[in-house]
Amino acid sequence: MKRLGILLSGRGSNFAAIARNIREGALAAEISIVLSNRAAAPGLELARSLGLPARAIPPQNLDREAYDSLLIEALMEAEVDLVCLAGYMRLLSARFVRAFENRILNIHPSLLPAFTGLDAQHQALTYGVKVTGCTVHLVDEYLDAGPILMQAAVPVLDTDTVETLSARILEQEHRIFPLAIAKVLAGSIRMEGRRVISL
Ligand code: GRF
To answer: How do strand 148-155 and strand 54-56 relate by DSSP bridges?
Structure first.
């Protein structure tokens, strides 16, 4: 069985969606570790309630490389095949990206390359786009920048607030993140430059 490592910083609803897909047999994988930079992340509590190994690794005063070395060590120890960033709010160092080359996925709540960084739903709403969505992509050391694996479009309604729009995007996040993970674990993709082609 392929082994997943989850990194999260907050509520962990994407992590919960991955765990649910595994439980329901829609995703052939196991979660071998859940790590967070924030000890108070609700996602960590959720992981423990599901009986999964979960650990906070606080950044303290470590620089990015030193901190990421701790993460790498924990993920290696858990023998993970794929790292899933599920609301992980820190940039990864080049060292981390090299350690898991092409084996790190992120979910972002916009149609990349639009609206990178924080508050992507707010950015989309204030810019005035009529369609936004979410993106699962491979992670490199730049922010929300790696090759795109899967996207889902979500219409922006005139009546939308950040909350209503975020909720509809989140439904799509929960749907496509497990699908993209399954695809990568099955090895049914190949790269053509930045393009991820399905086999
Ligand atoms: C999601 O919107 C995800 O796209 C972004 O951070 C949020 C995490 O939500 N990267 P959750 O912790 O998975 O509920």
So the answer is: unpaired
Q: What is the pTM of this model?
A: 0.97
Residue 141 has pLDDT above 90, yes or no: no
Q: For the chain, first and last CA: distance in Å?
A: 21
Ligand 1 centroid–CA 26 distance in Å is 21
Strand partners for 107: 136
Please pick, among 108, 122, 137, 174, the residue that the annotation labels catalytic. Answer: 108
Residue ranges and CATH numbers for the domains of the chain are 1-101 (3.40.50.170), 107-199 (3.40.50.170)
108 is catalytic: yes
Write the DSSP assignment of 29-52 as a string of letters: -EEEEEEES-TT-HHHHHHHHTT-
Check pocket membership of 144 for ligand 1, CB cut-off 6 A: no
Pairing of β 30-36 and β 54-56: parallel
Q: How far is the CA of 87 from the centre of ligand 1 (A)?
A: 4
What is the pLDDT, as a whole number, of residue 14? 98
